Amino acid sequence: MSDTQNFRKSQRKSQWREAKHDHLTPQYILAKKRYNQEPHTPAEIAWFIEQFTQGHVKDYQMTAWLMAICLNGMNGVETAALCDAMVDSGEVMDWSSCVHICKDVNNLHKVDKHSTGGVGDKVSLILAPLVASFDLVVPMMAGRGLGHTGGTIDKLESIPGYRTQYSSEEFAKLLLTSTDRSDDRRLNAAIVSPSKDMVPADKRMYALRDVTSTVSCLPLQISSIMSKKIAERPDSLVLDVKFGLGSFNKNVEESLQLASGMIETGELCGINTTALVTRMDSPLGYAVGNWLEVKECIEIMSSKEAALSELSADLVNVTLALAAQMLVQGGKA
Fold it and tell me: How far, in Å, CA of 149 to CA of 156, rounded?
């Protein structure tokens, strides 16, 4: 974690401890958002999410608050505060505690990428090792399929015996050591499932959103997506926000709004964040289906440029564009 992130986090925490919360009740929080007379303060949001995580705020109260957000919205600071509170609800990566694994860990730039997904979106399987080869650390915690899109973890688990569940300590060891390499270089890249102890508030809130038609609410969408990435504590983040027939957002205006909100939240939470808005009207590459997509990625990574199928050209182009941005943010270009 950078000094700036440490300062922002400790500043918010000290304000939270020193503030008086005698006036805070679930009813107060609900009424404030329902009537939308003024924005929530970060301390109010942090209190409400903490109370929910501890079981003092009930599911029906959280559902009412989520619906009020869906109807009345949130400003950028509220959205970032919600994201930050969800991150604080569970375990986070603490890179500074990994010096026993790699003494230079605090000097290594950690960069990740997130895609809003689409049919045949297999970019991460090529992108992570490509960027890692430039001596950047890529701590990628990926998800499963959602709706019509395939998840990166589902694709990897189509490989017999592939393990995706690791503790935070094991994840750090994978990234920062030379295990299973013939040389002494760090592995630098790993794609795993998020720990079950990371952002537990988001998991519970998403389940409620799923049954109350509030999944598409923009502030809730942004805070949910970004909380899982910020819990990794990367130094920088590149977003691939899709639009088109094969993605969740069908038009470019929706995707631009989502991208703008995620950038603002990332920056307010201390993460250098950028986004590429990319078209997805058809599957990326030529393969659709978990194992078939893994196979296509292996072919791309093991082939010479001249031997690449023209059917994979769009996949390669998107991957290279994202890789270039990650290298810029990581100080390698």
Answer: 15
Q: How many CA atoms lie within 13 A of 261 on its CB side?
A: 27
Catalytic residue chosen out of the listed positions 202, 235, 240, 314: 202
Active site residue 312: no
Please count the CA atoms within 13 angstroms of the CA of 170 that sit on its side-chain side: 10
Question: What single letter denotes the amino acid at residue 74?
Answer: M
Q: Which residue in 113, 186, 228, 242 is the catalytic one?
A: 228
Active site residue 209: yes
Decide if 154 is catalytic: no
Whether 195 and 145 have beta carbons less than 8 Å apart is answered as no
Beta strands, E only, 20-179: 111-115, 138-141
Q: Which candidate in 40, 209, 229, 233 is catalytic?
A: 209
Among left, alpha and beta (phi > 0; psi -120 to 50; other), residue 94 is: beta
Q: Which phi and psi angles does 64 have, rounded to 5°? A: -65, -40
121 counts as catalytic = no
* Catalytic residue chosen out of the listed positions 124, 193, 195, 224: 224
Query: Is-contact 93 233, C-beta < 8 A?
Result: yes
pLDDT tens, position by position, 81-92: 999 999 999 999
Active site residue 22: no
What pTM, to 2 d.p., does this model score? 0.88
**96-130 tens-digit pLDDT:** 889 888 888 999 999 999 998 877 789 999 999 99
